[in-house]
Specification:
60% of the residues lie in helices and 0% in strands. By secondary structure, the chain is mainly α. The longest helix is centred in the first third of the chain and has 31 residues.
């Protein structure tokens, strides 16, 4: 039983680490989109592939919900997504 609990917390920590990394990568991809117009066509192609692989729908979309929440848009992130992002960053 004790082993199971330890394993569970180890898995949760690993999952959080991956979530944190995913969020970071999405942020970097989002940053790269600002250079989109200056990139070569193969550069933009790869960037689009990266974004698609991570399930990002559009540039500038909220990196937590991919713009799926009706409250999130290019300029504004909903309080819920902001909290989720904070929690992932803090590794909870
Ligand atoms: Zn959102």
């Amino acid at each position: 039983m004790d082993m199971l609990i330890k394993e569970k917390s180890r898995l949760r920590k690993t999952l959080n680490k991956f979530k944190e990394r995913e969020l970071l990568i999405k942020k970097f991809i989002d940053d790269l989109y600002w250079e989109y117009d200056r990139m070569s066509s193969s550069g933009t192609e790869t960037l689009d592939k990266l974004a698609n692989t991570l399930g990002m729908k559009e540039k500038g979309a909220c990196t937590v919900c991919n713009g799926e929440s009706q409250l999130c848009d290019d300029e504004y992130q909903s309080m819920e997504c902001e909290l989720t992002e904070k929690e992932i960053k803090e590794g909870r």
